[in-house]
Q: What sequence folds into this?
């Protein structure tokens, strides 16, 4: 039995690349949809916030001399492309996905409307939130914390390349250990980068727990939703 009734899944754009250098790897996209489908079959209501780093990153654009706000808006448009690809892959897998964008591009996707998003979730549809918060200078981590709070999600699940939060970088330090559970205050005192500071503070203020896990580990998303010891749970 699922431990959560409604979740917010945060997917990075990079997760869609697979082993490619950029863009969307169709095999990886199909694999991610399979992981989401396994959770949907448990009757869990799923919201998804997706990044755009596989296509364009606002921070990278700034580093190359581009105006930060312009670069961030370009990044938001990249997330819309990813959301459309994810929605289409869901359709092919027999799932009913709906894309809602924080930027108005009504010829392509519908705008974000909180009440409509909640109704979709209640109807068993998977809602993919695109274009971040719709504002520059905020990351898609912050969008995940915001949308998770708005839709009444019981947890934010951050899908990453590593299987949890570690005491040090496991690639550099073989003695690094994974935290199974850690409080928000402990994460702050140990300076662990779970989410960006704004997103982390919002989750803490809203008492919205976070689980960091690897999307590349088969079945990990389902195990998290079932309440098993998978990834790292950050709690109040």
A:
């Amino acid at each position: 039995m699922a431990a959560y009734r409604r979740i917010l899944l945060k997917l990075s754009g990079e997760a869609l690349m697979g082993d490619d250098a950029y863009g969307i790897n169709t095999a990886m996209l199909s694999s991610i949809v399979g992981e989401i489908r396994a959770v949907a079959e448990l009757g869990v209501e799923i919201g998804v916030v997706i990044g755009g780093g596989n296509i364009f990153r606002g921070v990278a654009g700034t580093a190359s001399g581009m105006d930060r706000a312009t670069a961030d808006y370009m990044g938001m448009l990249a997330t819309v492309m990813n959301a459309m690809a994810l929605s289409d892959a869901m359709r092919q897998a027999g799932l009913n996905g709906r894309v809602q964008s924080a930027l108005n591009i009504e010829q392509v996707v519908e705008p974000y409307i909180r009440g409509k998003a909640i109704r979709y979730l209640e109807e068993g549809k998977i809602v993919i939130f695109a274009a971040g918060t719709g504002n520059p200078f905020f990351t898609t981590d912050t969008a995940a914390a915001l949308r998770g709070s708005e839709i009444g999600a019981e947890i934010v699940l951050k899908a990453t390349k590593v299987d949890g939060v570690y005491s040090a970088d496991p690639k550099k330090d073989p003695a690094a250990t994974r935290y199974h559970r850690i409080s928000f205050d402990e994460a702050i005192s140990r300076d662990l980068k779970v989410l960006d500071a704004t997103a982390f503070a919002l989750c803490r203020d809203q008492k919205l727990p976070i689980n960091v896990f690897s999307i590349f580990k088969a079945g990990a998303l389902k195990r998290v939703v079932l309440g098993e010891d998978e990834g790292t749970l950050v709690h109040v």
About this structure: The longest helix spans residues 68-92.
